[in-house]
Amino acid sequence: MIHLTQGNIRLNAQARDKTEAIRIAGSLLVDSGNMQPGYVDSMLLREKVANTYLGNGIAIPHGLPKDRELIIQTGISVTQFPDGVQWNQGETVYLVVAIAARSDEHIELLANLTDVLDDPETVQRLARTSEPADIIERLTQPRDGGSVNTGAPADAADDFAKWVDVSLTGPAGLHARPATAFVDIAKRFQSEVRVRHISKVANGKSLVSLLKLGADKQASIRIMARGVDEDAALEALAAAVRHGLEDEAEAPPAGFAAPTLTLQARAIAGIAASPGVAIGPLRHFRRERIVVAVTANDAAHEQTRLQQAIATAKLQLRELHDEVKARSGGARAAIFRAHEEFLDDPDLVDATQRLIGAGHSAGWAWRQSVDERALEVASLDDALLKERAVDLQDVGRRVLRLLADTLEEEPASIAVPVILVAEDLSPSDTARLDPTMILGICTAGGGPTSHTAIIARSLDIPAIVGAGPAVLHQAEDSLCILDGDTGNLYPEPGDGDLALARQAQHEWQALREAERLACYQPAITTDGYRIEVVANIGGAAEAEQAVAAGAEGIGLLRSEFLFLQRAEPPSEDEQFIAYSAMTRALNGLPLIIRTLDIGGDKEVPYLSLPAEENPFLGVRGIRLCLARSDLFRPQLRAIYRAAATGPVKIMFPMIATVEELRAARTIAEEVRVELGAAVVDIGIMIEVPSAVLMAPELAVHADFFSVGTNDLTQYVLAMDRGHPSLARQADALHPAVLRMIDMTVKAATAAGRWVGVCGGMAGDPKGAMILAGLGVAELSMSIPSIAAIKSRLRAQSLADMQALAKRALACQSAAEVRAL
User: Fold this and answer.
1) N or C: which end of the chain has fewer CB within 10 A?
2) What pTM, to 2 d.p., does this model score?
3) 758 is catalytic
């Protein structure tokens, strides 16, 4: 046990707030040689991820586990604040016990400290005493006696019939952090939980009671449970102890939010694309200059070179697809399958071969053919289709490198971590980046739906897009701060701004780690309301990834992944195998399968869909399914068959009228009867204004609604969400969109139906809180957003979110809503 001396005690201290109190208490340990000054900052950071208030006027601030190297020798200090210090709301502290613990030497003293909590008179006496010896004696000489279930000595009569013995695996025994984790788990069960250590028995749902056990590292404890769910409680608690409770204790408490930066330096404003803060030297991205001969004498040889280059490029794309899929999931990798399709374009290949036949080299002919087609695509009015020009140029460069006579100005490899600046990045450019060398990304062009933004988010790299040409004129290797949350790049920041940015980085890291460790905890608000948090996925492999990330099911399976990049539609059996593989991976969690949502905006050669002037207002979604029963019925058969293997729901996309929904349900029912399958819930996507206005009538025929905020936003505001110059304005938090969602929820509630949201707004912390306040029951989002959104929701009350939603509905612009 450690020694508590008068040098570690300060009486009659005063502090304006908790921060000052912690600094005073921490300085005692610094002065006594127990820790370095930096550990005081770690103590302050811990207050953002854990509540160190024990109760009855006592707090025990201590640092984050990752900062233990700042501890020189285990020690404890006690600071007396006779006037009290406001700790958190409703908590007044009189004794601050600061802990710097490298090992478990402080456990016995901590157990004695918690014993004091049962005696308010003793706490008040210690808060007013003028003798340090009183504090030393009380904390180093525990009193005898006590009662059962509060950590007092007990005999076997206190044990329950159901129990399991386990050994603590953490480095410092059952102290505050792991005990907090144990209590959090125990409270999830109705059964009474007790914990025995040697002769003491504690209430497993009481932090103070557990601390009184004084169980140090590798101690054996007996976990006991009695009640309706006793077996499940024992299994969960024993598994948590074996896994190591300390990691479980980093869950963020109420009020823990992402850090915000307000800097003095000049800012270059762009569009926030991937959150986080980056600090480092700026490096301009440069592509190599590919040199090819204009003419060639041997046409046959050039034709062979072309065929070999295309074949090699295909192999490269397949390898790149597999690499990105393993690293970031199938949805992120799908673009490289599309790139491979470009290489099979007969018009492109024929045009190149004709130029070769006219006496040009394979490289020159290929470049001309690609440039010509890219220019045609870039001139289209549709912004999303324009993006295909970037993809075409990307594929073209891949083949051109293989046909090059020389490569000039080949970019040097990045040897130190940098903030990468570019006019824009192609999918191949972004995929080739080494994440360990890229601190952040800033592009002059692009929008929040660009490949740069998508891949940056999947790699957890802070990113800004659409920052304009000013970023291209910044000095090479100049120090910059990139804020992916606000979309600002700060060139040449001062020392004060750098200090603020580094602090924000530190807080970001703590936040992300805390969210990750708490990802399996349900999103239950502080006033007891639960919001389901589920995932949007685009492939079978992502189902397992979603569960691992904390998803409580799949709110949107984009089934078109089975129909793209192939020569013919998938068979019923092929679809059944894919869907049932997901139900197995989900192991009882719900799966909502959206039926085929393909239209003129997606290239599906075997469907022979005619080109449409505006594919987003054409034959897509349910309209295509109703027109092509040869696609719709086999898919419905596969879904109903898969429903026998797990909880599955069907969802129809792009429903605009009651007639469409009734027709689709009629076909679904015919298929179900043919199979003799069980009834499943059938819902619809709310994506167009007519569906909102007809929601009361649609609710008669639908079991649930799911709002697709991405499409709903562009239809309500008449702004293409992928349009580079409109990206800032096409905001799902616009009051017009929020009022549409509010109307939908009210109509559904009146009919006894529930509403989910499966658009990008669900994964935006601001949007998630407003949606919950509007009465949305389920939020479905991309996998990387799950842990953060659950954390934010757990930190709020439903009442506060309802008040926020009410204020948001009364706003006049998206900017006003975000300012709330």
Assistant:
1) N
2) 0.53
3) yes
